[in-house]
Amino acid sequence: MNWIKLALEAGFEDAVLLNMDALEPRQEVRDMCSADRCRAFGTRWACPPACGSIEHCEKRMKAYTDGILVQTVGELEDDFDSEGIARANAEHKRRFAALARQARMIAGDCLPLSAGTCTRCEVCTYPDRPCRFPDKMLSSMEAYGLLVSEVCTRSGMPYNRGEKTITFTSCLLFNKKETDK
Ligand code: SF4
User: Where are the domains of the chain?
Assistant: First the structure.
């Protein structure tokens, strides 16, 4: 299975093989979640604390042999172009949900980690009822404790594409042997 080709066909501006050694969850990233900087902490099954401890997340990631990193790069009019940022974010979410859907069909067992919290449902069922779509839920790389800039750098992918651009990054983990059958 050529995952890079699949990602580029899904519309991502860039896709590279993930350096699996770079998947080192960091407590300081989880601390940023609990400081509630994105206002999703404790509101979604996909986010901490519901997505599990940092040890649990690390164990889940280590269950996969390979992965890819994918990026959407949006052009901005200037640094304050909030509409441009929102447009690129929405496009990245759309592309990544489509890629995750395909990957789950092809690989069965895989782990897509998105940019930003799960937005599958307008209002998450957390904490009163179970997740409506456990097979479609998307946790973020940050929720798994990953410092995205570091994962990019260690995988040979730019994290930032320079002035007047905004970049969103996600990753997809899988077992190569299973998907190459
Ligand atoms: S799929 Fe829906 S219920 Fe499940 S984590 Fe995402 S938003 Fe919440």
Answer: 3-179
